Amino acid sequence: MSLYNYLNPTIFLKHLPAVGLIFLLLLILVSIYVLDRSVVTTLKLRKLSRGSSHAKPQIDLERLCDSIANVRQALRFAFYTFGCCLFLMLCRSLDSVATSSKLNYGTILWNFGVDFTFAVDVCLIFLFLHIVQWVVSVRLNQVIRRPLPTSRSGSK
Questions:
Q1: pLDDT of residue 156
Q2: Apex CA 13: angle with CA 8 and CA 15, to 5°?
Q3: Among 30, 109, 118, 149, which one has the highest count of C-beta atoms within 10 angstroms of its own C-beta?
Q4: What backbone torsions phi and psi does residue 81 show, to the nearest 5 degrees?
Q5: What secondary structure letter does DSSP report for 147?
Q6: Rounded Cα distance, 14 and 87, in Å
Q7: Cβ of 122: how many Cβ atoms within 10 Å?
Q8: 3-state class of 54 per DSSP?
Q9: Whole-angstrom Cα distance, residue 83 to residue 87?
């Protein structure tokens, strides 16, 4: 498989087994969830740090902490599922040994190439999602450690 095929999803996806395609669907859903929660958390943090007239900022911060914890759990679940999926795909690569009377190294190496390409692409996506989650978590911890500004509407 050439470098062009590694980077071209229309060619690459044709060679993925069903387990890989199902995992990609899960990864897309987890990615949407992580990015959505990260954007919502960042917007709420910005609103809280500007001192909006909300009555209970501590409750909002606890909810945001819970939201980030849920994001971490979703990423962890997807990562462990990826490990199971990858091992199932690697076992599939060796199926040609059991189903054929002669050993076909080319097929085994091709299947390993597809599996490792899939693994590299998924690891890059996980790295990106982890960095997004980490940046939002650091920002949340900064807001928690400093006192929230109070609203100035009542003080004259």
A1: 44
A2: 115
A3: 118
A4: -65, -35
A5: P
A6: 19
A7: 19
A8: coil
A9: 6
Helix axes 18-49, 105-145, angle to 10 degrees: 10
What is the CA angle 145-149-153, rounded to 5? 165
Alpha carbon of 108 to those of 15, 95, 122: distances in Å? 13, 9, 21
Torsion sign, CA atoms 134, 74, 79, 6: negative
Count of beta carbons in the 10 Å neighbourhood of residue 56? 8
Residue 94 tokens read as: 């060796």
- Give this prediction's pTM: 0.80
Which residue's entry shows tokens 């109070």? Answer: 150
Matching residue, tokens 């060679």: 15
Query: φ and ψ at 43, to 5 degrees?
Result: -65, -40
Indicate the SS3 state at residue 2.
Answer: coil
Return the DSSP state at 53: S
Token readout for 110 is: 């091709």
DSSP state of 13: G
